[in-house]
Amino acid sequence: MGQLFGGLSPRHVAFIEAQKIFFVGTAAGEGTVNVSPKGGDSLRVLDANTLSWLNLTGSGNESAAHVLHNPRMTVMFCAFEGAPLILRAYGRARVLHRGDGDWAAALARFPPSVAARQIFLLDIERVQASCGMSVPLFDYQGDREDLANWSARQGQEGIAAYWRKKNQVSLDGLESEILVRSGLPPDP
Fold this sequence. Notes:
Layout: E1 3-5, H1 10-18, E2 21-27, E3 33-39, E4 43-47, E5 50-56, H2 62-69, E6 72-78, E7 86-96, H3 103-107, E8 116-130, H4 146-166, H5 178-181
Antiparallel strand pairs: 1-8, 2-3, 2-6, 4-5, 5-8, 6-7, 7-8
């Protein structure tokens, strides 16, 4: 079953800051459940009960669409080296877009990227630590540069065109609000 906590302890924060990958789980009331791996320098622990993560442009936009319909989110971290541990933060999330008033302050916590799409803030209600003894050991070789390189080639206009084509709705047809909340017209 693991141990339950009301928030992140200093030990949890140190563990999170050492991880190279985390996983985000979301779901609307009906339809597809989404679990998405995240990496790079894209997560911040703001305090014992708040996580913030930068969502970069990708092929889908499930997390944003789901959170608009159902703010429940789980963020999971696994030890792939050292002592075994799985740490999950459960809570309610909200999504920030470029046109939102607190976007600039939230974005300033992360390295600049033309691919910056949304920022999620997770209000942690519960933390669970479990053994993770069956999670395999892996060696970290480095971050992939593919998305950064692709995004740089697209530029701001190319990214906006990609959002229009691929990021407006979820797999289940739920609106992500990416265009209206980023101040972009539906068609140029």
